Structures are given as structure tokens and as C-alpha cells.
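Researcher: Let's try something more involved. This one mixes different molecule types, so please make sure each is placed in the same coordinate frame as the others.
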Amino acid sequence: MPAIKKAEPVIRKGRSGSAVNQDPDVWAKITGKAVYGTDLYFPGMLYGKILRSPHPHARIKRIDTAGAYAVPGVRSVLTAGDISNKSYGIVVEDEQPLAHNRARYIGDEVAAVAAVDEESASKALEAIKIEYEPLPAIFDPTEALLDEAVQIHNNCPGNIAWERDMERGEPERAFAGADLVVENEFSIPSVHPTYLEPIACVAVSDYMENLTIYTALQSPDVVREIIAEALELPLSKVRIIGPVMGGGFGGRVYGNLKLYLLSSLLSMHTGSSVKMRLTREEEFTVGRPMIAARMKVRMALRRDGTFLARESDIITDNGAYSAQAPWVSKTLSERNDSVYRIPNIKTRARLVYTNKVPTAQYRGYGNQAANFAYESLIDQAAQKLSLDPLHLRLKNCTRAGDVTVHGLDIKSCALSECLQKAAEKVGWNNRKEGCGYGISAGIHASGSLVANKDFRGASARAVLELDGRMTVYTGEQEYGQGAYGAFVQIAARTLGLEPQLLTIYCRDTLVTPYSQGALANRQTTIGGRAVQLAAEELKKLIEEAASEMTGEPVKMIGGSLAAVSGKLIRFDEVARYHHHRTSGLTLAGEGCYVPPPSKYDETSYGNISVTYSFAAHAAEVKVDRETGALTVHRIVAVHDSGHIVNPPGARGQIYGGVTQGLGFGCYEGYVFDRGKVANSSLADYRIPTALDVPRIDYHFIEINDPEGPFGAKGLGEVVQVPVPGAIANAVADATGVRVTNLPITAEKIYRTMFKGECDG
Amino acid sequence: MPAIKKAEPVIRKGRSGSAVNQDPDVWAKITGKAVYGTDLYFPGMLYGKILRSPHPHARIKRIDTAGAYAVPGVRSVLTAGDISNKSYGIVVEDEQPLAHNRARYIGDEVAAVAAVDEESASKALEAIKIEYEPLPAIFDPTEALLDEAVQIHNNCPGNIAWERDMERGEPERAFAGADLVVENEFSIPSVHPTYLEPIACVAVSDYMENLTIYTALQSPDVVREIIAEALELPLSKVRIIGPVMGGGFGGRVYGNLKLYLLSSLLSMHTGSSVKMRLTREEEFTVGRPMIAARMKVRMALRRDGTFLARESDIITDNGAYSAQAPWVSKTLSERNDSVYRIPNIKTRARLVYTNKVPTAQYRGYGNQAANFAYESLIDQAAQKLSLDPLHLRLKNCTRAGDVTVHGLDIKSCALSECLQKAAEKVGWNNRKEGCGYGISAGIHASGSLVANKDFRGASARAVLELDGRMTVYTGEQEYGQGAYGAFVQIAARTLGLEPQLLTIYCRDTLVTPYSQGALANRQTTIGGRAVQLAAEELKKLIEEAASEMTGEPVKMIGGSLAAVSGKLIRFDEVARYHHHRTSGLTLAGEGCYVPPPSKYDETSYGNISVTYSFAAHAAEVKVDRETGALTVHRIVAVHDSGHIVNPPGARGQIYGGVTQGLGFGCYEGYVFDRGKVANSSLADYRIPTALDVPRIDYHFIEINDPEGPFGAKGLGEVVQVPVPGAIANAVADATGVRVTNLPITAEKIYRTMFKGECDG
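Model: All components are placed in one shared frame. Result:
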């Protein structure tokens, strides 16, 4: 009997048995009860605010904070001089908690205040007097490369944050002997992950040097290490607890480190908890969008369509600080080379500092940007060779057993099946009058082996509770992508139990096993594998304890515990038995998945992921030939993500990822005006709304991957990768001209059609 | 370098290295930053309030809640009919979350409301219409025993909640053959633990049937089980997280179950978090004080002072519901029989329902009440036999190796040394003119083997963190008594580390090992032993991992890790090594202390505790012979608590416990007016303030106990036990007359001296 007999004012049961219901966020979200970072309140909590540079580049000559301290309710005012201000960074240590001597973009953090309410904090910001000396600023990465360009970071001559020159095979010779060489230039703007919830956090420090930060992150364990090092705290003194995450899409892998560091410093200074949150405008102006890119690409083919070589010159725009932009630039500059068999590759890539918004990462990790360029060029080649773009792709596409040009070890691959199915479903050979059709193929790592130095695996704990239910402890992160639903399915299947008997415990770096977090499509493949191993271990421990308890062999079969005598044993009996004999402990299975070593050499040659996911998307579009107005009718998304363990979650990934791909292809992109973000609101920075979403058809080619749990591979990132390329090719098919700079808007299509401005 | 360079507005370092500093509460408390239950706030939180019966005994004929629902801001109004209202209880299942049909005392919970603020909740209470039919009420337990008395609980004829008739040896024969029989009657009022922080909680339920209750408890794991059962929730769905505890003294072993159950039900009904807190007045009128007692006692002695037998007739006043009052009555009725060698015992004890405040437990568990009676009677006997009360006690006192009359197995005991030292220090043979001197001896269980059915032990987890520091996970509870300081000392000593490298993690039933909690003096003895075992296991695991890492044998000596080659290894290296090989796990030692079985028979004969603590207190008092005004000059507290592992904590226990003993003896006690508490505020219910505390001298006889960690035994409860008896005897010594009903006030001394009213 339920404890409450009354008619209940709100839905409260999660008993229907669907896997999704075991995701702790789902019910909270659909009933509006989810608690996000911005909802948090702690007793005596202060509110922090940041004073930001109004100049894109300026020397900070003098800061006077006396006026701010005079504002009633102000508890702390910090500038670079008040803190040790240790440099930190994810790849390059080019940031400090507060700008010291020099501000490098409009929005650079110069001072931070904490006060009893947001109004007092805002008043305090106004009362801080700063004397700036403006410096010449650079907004264009190609200008930043010029000899006469001002140097944005003292230790970085030439403004190059990261670069690579890479050759595989003999590209010069291949180009020289080719039947056809096609080339083009493409540009892709900076794009913000635009999660619905702006980043917010509360830092709570205490008198024993403990620091707890409440904030939703994709990689809390990794952020914890960065924060401990930057603040010179013992690692075990720092704890991150995650409220519900309002989307992440890569933007919350490291979130906004500045916010966490400054709220922590203010909390350590005042001894009170300090909340900070970004406004939507700040998200656009000081949040961390993905790098913009300019790509000059050439491709060599044989007459029969065989791909011979590709050459790329890539400049990515880093903005003022680099975060993980070097890694994104690296992925952008190489991942697509493994979609097809291309034996010869030459790539020059440079990541360049400018006085603009610092950048980071986004779902797809630059892979969708390069995919747009390369897939556009493949269609150009098909046209020149009068070959069907589908057949050209099928002829060259990567297959299981391949070791690609960069050394990726393709253990499972159904890309050709994906291409064929996408073409079949979109009606490739049965086209509608007046429509354009495009296709694009993508690859993405699933379970990076190189994302966090040499830490590659994952671990999980599965516990038998005293009431016979089981709990899985995981450090992996759920942010709407369905990871926890997948874990419940994996554990339930391993244990032979109904998913309702399982609970996921998560989001507390103190309690949950260390994890790299939700990135590089590693949740299901690597995190899920650890869950599987933990569940297997728990099963073994339960059988052992039950055998000891009954004095006869016991096996766990089909969710039941049966002794050889036929006697059935309840799980709670075994739990209590163990509880008693250990004076209070629970039976806990630990699962450690240690993936094969990455064999990755200094030229970045070698396998970089446990496995790889593949996708082919086909688009059907219509273009108004008078106005250029584009209507995307349909996206057909066909995926090889191995065996699908959590179908509702996978469906969600398809709908969300394709929609974001549509945004990337046709809507989004930063617009700058002398370093200032000109479209810093959701009114000006357009993302697709529900009304803009086309019909999305999806299909899974369910081959079993040999590494992933129950044959599963990741899906979250690859789903966005082929969308812009497929749409671009469909637009070209419809109009006969090619838009080479994203986003593909009506205006650009019009100009390309009638003025030849973007013609490729 | 510290992260903040600025002069800091508040103290924030806990680096001085004293054990106390490792107690996570200490710095928070002394800087005013501690977060108590009443400070908690959760987004969208509602406030709950309770409508209480104004009648001591009444039939509830009709409840109309329509008006309450009409009050703006009201979200839920619950009465017994709205909930399943399952009966629950700690010993007897005599309570329900809300009174059903009948209210049994002034304050009985009849309805509960949740609203957006406390004002709206209060208005809603006023708007509930209840029709009562008053019933005859009983306020005196002896009247409750009469045949014609109204029956307070349907299933409890005679109003007896618990009773026992016990005989050991041959008491009748011993009394018949005695040289001297002394007798007297004593009465002890109900006393409230009067923790500084009134009980408060927040219940947070979610849509997956998870229920988290934030409240400070001495036994959260046990309360969790009671709540899960009462609310018919799976145990693993209920979690209790403890904020800082503002005192407990036994009153927070189970705290206020009504409050937790009603806030949970309101939260489950509304889907919002619900806060409830008791006012100080409610603490006195509906909180759970210790039982009052009336004791008629006789004692038989030989002429040489040898104790031959004791007979007791005890009536304890249960109030309306029983909670753990049966257990307290049981301890009250037997524990003191083991202070001395008394071969023959006859005891009749009855716990009786009345229409007054329900009772529970308090530090000392009734032992101090009975001690007052028995130790007073021993002095009466000494007077009659013209023997020195000290010598009479030394002649009869329990010694190591004894098995007492109730079967207690006394493995270590320095009671005679305590008595001698107390006498020496108070100046027993060197008395000040005009002063009275009294002495009293006490025993208390240290690590009960019977408190929670057959669960007796404790477990702990010790973890090597990635930074080389170590964390101890314990389910035991700190509430100012110094348990965590003791644990840090025990772990540090086991590992050979500085205490500053250790952190205690606690107060979360989900994360910390199951524990019976802070009761029966089990923290140091049982909890500490588990910590010791966990630290030993961790040490072994660290040595093994370090040996594997270096390829040569490694030993942990004096806080360092040294390989046989002489190479020193850092702890963080070993931690990282293990972290890597397990893909993210930490090295964790689990310690399970399983104490010897209790061998406890159906007559309650047998050993009931891991070990026993002893104490002798001596008091020096002065009585104004004209007014009766009592001045306690000095209490000398001499203790056998084995080896003292945490000296600052032990000192605190002495000061606090002696002061509470003084309150019990001379200040406190409920006053009722027809079932209504007449002194329900701290103005009327007097406890000693800092100005009332006499000089307290203390001394430890540090013998090593064979079971306790490093020879330690408990101290927390025994320290209050001898105080009232020592003061009573000193007053009798000063005045020549004896006050037999507590508290011993000037008025009572005066009346006894001049009117013979309380003469014994």
C-alpha cells in the first residue's frame, strides 16, 4: 500500500519499467522539479559577479577597488594582485583566474566581487575604477599570422597556439599522377553549444580547506584536478557535485573554469558559499564556443573515382585563450581522413590567437566542420567525373578490418551499408521533382584512448542493497543523452534483472569512481563496459555469499537465486547475511575496464579509440529559385553504432544531433564587430526551433562491435557530423551552385546563384 | 603558496595539527559557519507545520480540512485518513504518523500541512476544524495501574508498556539473614536532553520514490530503517544526510520520528522538499524527554559492610507513547547492580502509560537516576554502620575479572583506583570546615552488544586518495563528543601518519558504512576498532601496491613508504599507480569489527557490552543552613575509560557530562499541570549555565582494555552517572538530612532540614 492514500496532485510514480525511467533526471525534468545549478541556495550564500574588460586588447594600468568595498553588502573584491593567480590551461597554460596587466578580449575577467545579493554585487562592479591603455587588437587569424602583428601572449611568437604539418604516404606524387584534382576553400564560423541552461555554480569552502563546487559538468573529475592545481589545494580537498545538467554538447566538458575558480576564490576569501551564473549574453560573449575554421582543400582522384590523395591547409581561430582548441583543431584536421580509404594525406593546420572570444569544443569536435568541406569536395569531384556521388563514396569507403591512413584500427564498420540504406530511404533513385538530394558519410571516435593523457578506461561499482535492490555507481555523466538509461540496460541484462530494480548513483566526485566523463563518445562503450564488468563481479559475489549462507552451491539465473536443492533465495537475505558478517558493509562488485593500449606515435599515427562509429546521412531539400529560401524536407540518418542497448536514448540522440547539425549547417555562427560579438542573444543567434525541424528518419545497422558492451558503440557525436555536408550537397544538387561558407542561408544561396559570390 | 594573498577577513586554516582540528565540525562551529538543519534551504521548498491536540485524552470525532486548503499558499493538508498511517515503534508499535480517532496527550499530532511559507502553514492550521470528545485522562503512573483506570492504548490492558520481575541469587534469604536492612523511596523527574539545537529536518522526495531526509541524528542508519518500514518504501530508496548536529545527548538517537515521517509524507504528497522544525516549546512539550522514575529500594548488609542483597520496586512514567522507554527502564532497573558485588537481587520494574509527553532516552540511559537512589542508600547504610562511605564502597566494588550478578563480564576495571583517587583529590581526609563531602561510583556499558537486535559490530573504510592523503569513511556520528577526533587519532596511529593527512567522511547513509550510531558508548570502542582495522587493511594494500609498482618489497614505517633498496615512495605515486591499473578506483581498506557474541539469556542474564567504563565522582558542597541554598564547590571526576586516545575530546566529555549531571541533580525536571508541561521554556526549565558550573577536576586511570582500540573504552555516558549521587551524599553530609527527590533545590533542602518533608 502506498504511504499516501490521497489523490495525488502530481505524477509521482516511475514504475512503468521503461529503461528511461531509471534515469534519475527524466521524471524531475518532465514534472518541472529538476534542480539546476541556478536553483541552488545555501545558507548565508553570497552572489559573485565579474568585472570584464570593455576593450579587445588593453594594458591594465591601475585598479582601484576601494569604492567597491564601500558598497553595503559587499564581502570580497578580488583582482589579480589579491590572489596567487596561477596560470592554468587544458593544453596550453595561457589563462589565469583574473587578467593580470593585460586584457585580451572584450569580456576578459578583470575583477570579481561577492556580495549579499546580485544588486549589491552589480553596484560594486560599477564602483571599481580601472585605468586601461588600449593596445592594437587582431580579429582575423590570417592577419594574426603576419610578421607585423601584435603578439597576444608574450610566450607565443607568431600568435600560433598550436600547429601541425603532417604527411602520410606520398601526397606530392599522388597529386602529380592524378587524373583529376579538385579544390575549394571553405569557411566555418565559431558555433556555441547553446545548451538551454547557462552555466551556474555554487562554491562552498570550509575551514578545513575543503572546497565543494556544485555545478553540472560533463567531466567533473577532470575539472576537479584542474581546479585543485590552479588553487593549490590537495586534490582530495576538492569535490564536485552535479545538479541536473541542462544540456552540454561538449560545452560542459570543462564548462566555464573561470566561473568555478572565481567563485571558489571568493568563497575561500569570505568563508561563505558563493554562487555565480552566466547570463545568456555572457554565455555568448565569454562562454566557450567551438573554433572557427578556414580550409583550403585539394583532392586527387583516378578517373574511375578512386581517391588518391588529399591536401588541406587549415587555419582555426583560437580567440584569446586556448582551452581545448588545440585538440579540436587536431581532430578537425585528421578525423575525416578515415571515412574513406585515402592513402596519401598532406595537412597543414594552424590554430591562431586573436582578440576574440576564447574557444573550446562542441559536439562533433570540429569533425562536422571538416566533414562539410571534404564531403562538399567529393561531390565536386563526382560531378567532374560524372559519377554518382553515392557510388563514388561506396567505392572508397572504409570497411571493417581496415587500418586507416592515420592508423585507426577499424574493428567494426557498416559504413557502406549505412550509405546504401540512407540512399534507399531518401529515395536516391526515385527523386521528387524540384528537390535536391545530398549524401554525406562520417566517422567518430567511440571511446577515446588519448583524451586524458594515458588514462583510458573506466570503472564502476555495483552494490547489492539491504533491500535486495542494486545500485550502480558511476562517474560517467548523464546530460540528456541517455547514458544512464544505457547503463541500467547493460547492468540489468548482465544480472538478468528487471531494470526497475536498479538505481544509478552519480554526480559526486567523492563517491563515484573517477571518470573522464561524457566526451569522445565514451559513455556507452567505455563507461558501459565498466558497468558490465561491475555487474558481473557483483553477480559472482552474490552467488558466493548465497552459497556460503545456505551451505550449498547457488547460481543466479534469470534474475533469481537458486540453490542446487531447488531452494530459491531472496536477494535481501543475502544482503543481510553479508551485512551481518561484515558488521555493516554491503556486497559490492567493482568493474575496471582497461582498454587495449593506444600505440599512438609522435606523428599522431596510431589507434586513438576503442572503436569507431559510422554514419551516412541523406538530405532532401527544396530551394526557392527566386529567393534562395531553403527548405530541408527530410534528413535520413543511418548509423552504425553497433548494437543499440538503449533504444529510446538512441532515438533522442538522433533527433537532437540531426537538429543541431541542421543548426550548424543552416542557422548558427558567431558574428563579430571589431572583436565584439554582434549576435549575443538567442534573438540574434538563431538556432533551429521545433518549427524548423524537418522530418528525420533514422535507421540502425546493428552489427556487434567486439569491444563495446553487448556490441554497443557510441552515437552522441557522430550523429551531428554528416548533416551540414549532406545539406550542402543537396543544395548544390538543387541549385547547381555550391555555398562554401556556413551557415547555408537563403541570402548566401541567392548570392551564390545570382552573383557568383560563394561559387565553388 | 595559498591561493588568496589578501589579509583574510576570517580565520580559515586548520593546520595546527591538533586532533580536534580534524573534526570537520570544529572550525565551522567556532566561526559560526556551521550549517544546522534549520539553516537548510532547497529550491521550491515548502514549510510544514503540525496541528496538535489541545486535550490530554480525547476522541477525534471529525476533522474538516477544507478551510485549510483554501488558505493561499497551502499545498498539502494530511490527516490520518489521507495516509496509510502504519503503526510503528522502536520497542512497541504504539505510534502512527498521525493520531487516528484518539489523541493521547497535549501535543499529539493530528494533522500536518505544507505551505509556501511558515505563515501560510500556521494560518492553515487555524483553519482546520476538529471536533473532539474529551476522555478521562491519567497523569500519575500509580493511578494508571489501578483497576478502574482508563485504558490509554486498546491493546495494552493495565497501561503497562513494559515490565519485569527479576531475581538473582536468593534475595529473600539474604534479607532474612542480614545484620542491617536500610530502605528509602526516591523519585526522579522526567528530564529533557536540552540539546542547543531544536530538531529540524528537510525531506526531499523525487519521482523515482527516492526520499532523502536532511537531519542530524545519532543513529541515522537505524532511523532510516524505521522510516522505510513506516512509509512502505524500499530501504535503499531512503537516504539520511546529516547537517552539523547541535547536540544530542541521546535525544537524537532516533530524534523526532514524527517530524521525519510527516515531512516525508508532505514531500511525497506535494513532490516538493518540505522543511519542519520544532520550536523550543515544542521540544519540551512534544520532544522526547527521559522517563521519570519512582524507586522504592531496600538493601541488606552484613555488620562489616559486606553487601548482601538489594530489592527494588520501580515505576517509570512512559507518557503517551513508548519509543525506547522500555529499554531505558530496563537499564535503569539493572545496570547499577554491577557497580558493586551484590550477590542477591530482586527487582520489580513497571513502565506505565500516562496521558503526558511521550518519553525516550537521555545520556546515561536512566543509569544516573538509579545511581542517585542506590548511592544515597549506600551512604545511609554507612551511617548506620558507622563506616566511612569510601571504605564501604571500596570493600564491595566490582573488580577486573568479575562476572557480575547480571552476568556482565568485567575484563578491565579500575573502579577501586577511581574511588581512591577521587577521595584523595577532593580532600576526603582533609575536609574544609563547613563543607559537605559525598562520593558515588558508576558503571556504564561501552559498546552495547544488544542495542540493535543481533547487530553488534561496526565497519569502516579507509581510502588512499590520489593526492596521497587518506580518508576514513564512518557511519558513526560526531555531535560534539569528539568521536571523529578519536577516529583520526586511531587511524593516524595505526598508519603512522600525522593526523592532518587524514579526513573523516561521514553523515550520509548512502555513502558511509552502516552503523548503529552514537549510543551506548560504542563510538570509540566499537566504531574506533573498525577504523583501526580499516587502517590496518589499507596499510597492507598500500604496501602490496607499492611492492608491485616498484618490483621490490615495500614497507610502511613511521608514515613513510620504503622499499628494501632504501628508495622512498610517495603515497600519491602508489595511489596513481592503482588508479591507473583499475581505470579509476582508489585503494580502499575495509575494516569489520565483529565483537564476541553476547551470550544473553531470556532472563537478561549475560554479557551485554564489549567492555564497561567506570567512574567515581566526589563532590564538595556548602549549604546555607538558614536558607538551604546549595553551592557545589567542586566535582572531582575520576574515570576508568581505558587508554584515552583523544585527550581534548575526553576533557570536553568530562566538563559537559559533569555539568549535565549537575543539572540532573540540582536544576532540571519536568513540571506538569494536568498533563500540560508547565515549564516549557528555557526560562522556566532551568539548566546550568556557564555561571553555575563548579570547579571540575578530572583524572584518568589509564588501564588498557583488551578489546578497545589501543585499549580505549567509552566515556560519554558514564561521566554523568555518579554526579547526582555524589552531590546528594555531600548535601546529606553537610546537613545531616537527605533529599530523596531530584532535583535537589534550596527549597527542598530547606524543607527537609526544617520540616522533615523529604527526610530519608
